[in-house]
Amino acid sequence: MVMPNFLIIGAAKAGTSSLYSYLKQHPQIYMSPIKEPRFFALEGETLDFQGLAQGINRRSVTQIEDYCRLFQGVTNEIAIGEASTLYLHSQKAIARIKHYIPNVKLIAILRDPAERAFSSYLHLVRDGYETLSFAEGLEAEERRIKEKWQPLWYYKQRGFYADWIKQYFAAFEREQIKIYLHDDLVADTNAVVKDIYQFLGVDDEFTPELTRENVSGIPKNKLLQTILTKKNLIKSALKPLLPKKLRHSLNRSITQKNLGKKTILDPDIREKLIDMYKPDIIQLQTILGLDLAKWMK
After folding, report:
1. What's the half-sphere exposure (Cβ side, CA atoms, 13 Å) at 202?
2. Closest CA to 291 of 184, 202, 145
3. Which H or E run includes 107?
4. pTM to 2 decimals?
5. Domain that holds residue 202
6. SS3 at position 7
7. How far apart, in whole angstroms, are the C-alpha atoms of residue 271 and residue 220?
8. Which residues contact 90 (CB under 8 A, 6 or more apart)?
């Protein structure tokens, strides 16, 4: 039974899709063929997430046999991994990871929580799943959580990191865990990826194609974005004609070209979010020994 020896545990909208792509390209790394299997957070559960996008119910892997099948293609790769952002905020995930793969290596990328929340919102607007303004979405969050909407709508909740990082540090040896900042991943992608390669024990001289994945934003043409993201006759007709890798590349290229100018978070909303996150950020600074003052501006 093959299991992963490393996991990307989050955070959502902090660059995990891009990192998944960079690692998947390395010949000594095997990544699960689907991103976000979410097994360790959702094992054995009957899923009934609600809301506008319920694909999480269909795409999540909840049985150990199905999870192991994700890694049946492993040959001689050194590092075997997957990426599920739900793990960062799940006590069940911590316990199950510790049970199944106690010697696993864990990677987390943390992002300015206010910007992370806004990016999550823009992601859903981009794909036609969010009809409220950002301010309205923040107000609706408590209700949506009670109604079991899937976690991508938890704009505020998923920006609290300190207590979760403490729990991971308590459950695993410190040398098993690497924490990176989204700012550093964006500023010097090569350096961060090289460090991760070293952490995983693979050839750090390998250079992947560093195209950003799953970029959030407001689409210029909403109809085109709907065609790209939702099931439709056009996508169904092209599926047997184009290889999966080419379809993915075209979809990514067209999606990025269809995004408008970068949307900026309203300063007043940012200030309110910073006030809410500040105690958590200060605590996280102490835990990680990092200067996160930029997140509080």
Report:
1. 24
2. 184
3. strand 105-110
4. 0.85
5. 6-117+158-213+277-296
6. strand
7. 28
8. 40, 41
What CATH number corresponds to the domain at position 37?
3.40.50.300
In a domain, 260, yes or no: no
Residue 151, in any domain of the structure: no
Q: What torsion do the CA atoms of 275, 279, 282, 288 make, to the nearest 10 degrees?
A: -120
pLDDT in tens, 210-256: 887 656 556 656 555 555 555 665 656 556 756 666 655 565 556 55
Q: Taking the CA of residue 212 as centre, how many other CA atoms within 13 Å lie in the half-sphere pointing to its CB?
A: 15
Is residue 129 a part of any domain in this protein? no
Residue that the structure tokens 């940012």 belong to: 270
Residue 23 falls within a domain, yes or no?
A: yes
Q: What is the DSSP letter of 259?
A: B
User: pLDDT tens digit string along 44-60?
Assistant: 999 999 887 788 999 99
Domain count of the fold of the chain: 1
The number of C-alpha atoms within 13 Å of 176 and in the hemisphere containing its C-beta is 19
